[in-house]
Backbone:
């Protein structure tokens, strides 16, 4: 049985503008990842959202789902995995939405881990030692 190629995967892998945009977007994770973190950008089938949309009571048409890009950004390190998706008719917007959704999760985790006292110490450190460019 032959599988049909996914046009979104081909667009991600072969379009230099899309590749460049992806690299720009994932660069924003620098403060949240280590050299051991594996970052993956995954194209998923938007038609598989039909059941979820039905459950949520969202109005949609199956033919419109085919026109969407469903992009996930996945961070893997050791036994830890985080991911977020973006769904949009523009691939660039879908990628940006996935990045924004994942950054939001990472910031929430960071905010819950770093105490107010730690923030004040860090701010004072930078105020006392300004960096010259």
Residues:
């Amino acid at each position: 049985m032959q599988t049909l190629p996914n046009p979104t995967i081909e667009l991600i892998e072969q379009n230099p503008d899309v590749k460049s945009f992806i690299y720009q977007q994932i660069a924003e994770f620098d403060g949240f990842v280590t050299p051991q973190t594996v970052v993956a950008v995954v194209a998923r089938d938007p038609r598989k959202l039909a059941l979820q949309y039905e459950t949520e009571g969202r109005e949609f048409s199956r033919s419109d789902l085919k026109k969407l890009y469903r992009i996930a950004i996945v961070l893997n390190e050791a036994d830890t995995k985080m991911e977020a998706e973006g769904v949009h008719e523009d691939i660039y917007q879908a990628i940006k939405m996935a990045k924004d959704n994942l950054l939001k999760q990472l910031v929430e985790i960071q905010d819950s881990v770093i105490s107010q006292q730690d923030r004040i110490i860090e701010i004072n450190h930078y105020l006392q030692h300004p960096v010259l460019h």
